[in-house]
């Protein structure tokens, strides 16, 4: 029997085009259109949930190439610190966001920030990331430790776990919604925006609405990282 082990190598992509294909796994013929409308619709939810201003500094956990960071900075002038496990995503993010209001840090740097409790982000968001994370409880505790007390956390997540392994994506059965509610306080669930459907004109595909959730949490119980 083949041994199975965690490997996030799939997130190392050298070009913007390849990174986009990994970030939004939709049919190639709708990728550009979906990228635009999904980014706008997701940013709308983040703005409603986190209410950032020019004075805010947000944490983007699993920033990828900075898809949401770019949109949010353009729309509000807030500052954003992106964390990503992938060195190539972080490099592409700095190029793609192209703003001195954005910076990208590694997972190790993020762990150090959390341990030192030197950051106090005004809010955080994590968009289609936590389903891929090997140890989501630890990362959620780090998010809590780097955010100010009562800071909001917005999560858009896939129901099924998709942990990258040497044998493809695996479902280890962990429940991210339950974990997040243990570390933060659950505040609100959002409906799936129409622009996040693959084909808005045809309506939802079977199971499409149920495949993801959009939730707002509050940092009431600061985690020790
Ligand atoms: C599907 S992409 C989403 C990117 C971005 N949030 C977006 O919506 O455009 C998932 C991202 O999570 C990152 N990631 C996966 N595991 C991570 C971890 N443990 N810590 C930080 N980032 C992680 C990947 O490298 C990848 O960039």
Can you characterise this structure?
This protein has 225 residues and is α/β, with parallel strands linked by helices. It has one domain: 3-Layer(aba) Sandwich (Rossmann fold). Helices cover 35% and strands 20% of the residues. It is built from 7 helices and 9 strands. The strands form 2 sheets. It has a 7-stranded mixed beta sheet with strand order 3-2-1-4-5-9-8. Helix 5 (107-116) crosses helix 6 (136-146) and helix 6 (136-146) packs parallel to helix 7 (176-183). The N and C termini lie far apart (36 Å). The mean pLDDT is 95.
Outline of this structure?
With 225 residues, the protein is of the alpha/beta class.
CATH fold topology: Rossmann fold
Question: Count of helices?
Answer: 7
Average the pLDDT over all residues and give the rounded result: 95
Could you state the order of secondary-structure elements as H and E?
HHEHEHEHEHEEEHEE
Unreliable residue stretches: none
Query: Can you say what the CATH homologous superfamily is?
Result: Vaccinia Virus protein VP39
What labels would you give this structure?
seven-stranded mixed beta sheet; Rossmann fold; alpha/beta; 9 strands; binds S-adenosylmethionine; globular; 225 residues; two-stranded antiparallel sheet; 35% helix
């Amino acid at each position: 029997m083949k041994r199975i082990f965690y490997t996030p190598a799939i997130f190392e992509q050298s070009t913007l085009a390849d990174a986009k294909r990994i970030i939004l796994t939709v049919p190639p013929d709708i990728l550009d259109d979906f990228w635009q409308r999904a980014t706008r619709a997701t940013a709308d939810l983040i703005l409603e949930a986190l209410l950032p201003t020019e004075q805010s500094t947000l944490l983007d956990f699993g920033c990828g190439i900075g898809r949401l960071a770019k949109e949010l900075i353009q729309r509000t002038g807030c500052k954003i610190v992106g964390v990503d496990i992938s060195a190539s995503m972080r490099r592409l993010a700095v190029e793609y966001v192209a703003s001195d209001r954005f910076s990208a840090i590694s997972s190790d740097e993020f762990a150090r920030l959390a341990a030192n409790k030197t950051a106090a982000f005004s809010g955080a968001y994590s968009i289609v990331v936590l389903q891929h994370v090997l140890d989501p409880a630890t990362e959620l505790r780090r998010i809590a430790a780097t955010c100010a007390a009562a800071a909001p956390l917005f999560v858009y997540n896939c129901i099924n776990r998709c942990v990258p392994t040497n044998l493809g994506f695996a479902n280890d059965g962990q429940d991210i919604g339950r974990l997040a509610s243990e570390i933060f306080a659950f505040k609100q669930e959002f409906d799936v925006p129409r622009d996040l459907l693959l084909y808005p004109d045809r309506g939802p595909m079977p199971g499409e609405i149920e495949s993801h959730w959009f939730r707002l949490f509050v940092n009431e119980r600061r985690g020790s990282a």
